[in-house]
Amino acid sequence: MGKIILCRAREAKQPLVVKDIGLKIYTLEELCYFIYNNIYFISIDFFDDDFNSFVEETGQKQLVQIIADLKSRNAGLAQIVVSVLKYVDYYSNEEIEQLSGVLGTLDSRNVYERLKARADTLLENKCYYGAVQNYAKIIEGTYDKSLSGLFYARVYHNMGVAHARMFLYKQSVPYFEEAYKIGQHEESLKCLMAAKRLAMGNNIIESDDASDQEAALKSELEKLADNARYSDTYRHLQQIEKLKEEADITEYNDALTGLLDDWKKQYIKYKS
């Protein structure tokens, strides 16, 4: 059975919008849930004027003052986060204590590590353009010798994934190549071969002496293409097409418009 959570402050009419992932937050409890579960996504810039306006709208001006005082004393990000969590009292002291290991690294963690954590969160939330922007800051920045090759291999690999999920297969190829060059991981090699095939499309020229890996990948992609007709999206398209065949043009147009609107929303999220 779930538990009932009573909000200590009123709901804001104008939400706090986490721009990178398009998330809208209306209560302090929602705010704490977001911070607690996305701790590496938070930076000192998160506590800006928009944040203050949101908190004030919930009627908790005291929290705004607490954060302002902490900033004036050059308090670290970890101290500000803990102060917010304890003020709202959504999580128990024991639950906050469980974050102690993570919180202890917020002020000392490498900038690139924080950028990668932020980019990984964006990638997971299908905000691919935002992920690309953050991975690019690492790739285009000064090489950090304190970070492992595995770290950079994952950055390049995920950069390739972000491009591929936006159907930019050609652009994803050099990132998968670099990821495999650095990390020598089978996953990166497989993604590299798949990206090359998808980038070439109908122009691909099959080789008689293809490796076993390439042959297996070709078979897997062909199987995925064949199975696409059984997906929910394909079945939905068939249902819409059936409306046209039944001469129900009005319902057909409405269904098609709704589907296009959904695709537009997905695309906008990808590009956010």
Description:
- With 272 residues, the protein is mainly α.
- It has helices at residues 28-37, 49-57, 61-72, 77-88, 93-97, 100-106, 111-124, 128-139, 149-165, 169-183, 186-200, 212-227, 232-245, 249-271; strands at residues 16-18, 23-25.
- The chain has a two-stranded antiparallel ribbon.
- The protein starts with 15 loop residues before the first strand and ends with a helix.
Could you provide a short overview of the structure?
By secondary structure, this protein is an all-alpha fold.
Shape: flat
Q: In this structure, how is the largest beta sheet organized?
A: 2 strands, antiparallel
Quaternary state, please? single chain
Strand element count: 2
Organism: Lachnospira intestinalis
InterPro entries: TPR-like_helical_dom_sf (IPR011990)
Protein name: Tetratricopeptide repeat protein
Show the helix and strand layout.
Elements: E1 16-18, E2 23-25, H1 28-37, H2 49-57, H3 61-72, H4 77-88, H5 93-97, H6 100-106, H7 111-124, H8 128-139, H9 149-165, H10 169-183, H11 186-200, H12 212-227, H13 232-245, H14 249-271
Antiparallel strand pairs: 1-2
Helix pairs in contact: 1-4, 2-3, 3-4, 4-6, 7-8, 7-9, 8-9, 9-10, 10-11, 11-12, 13-14
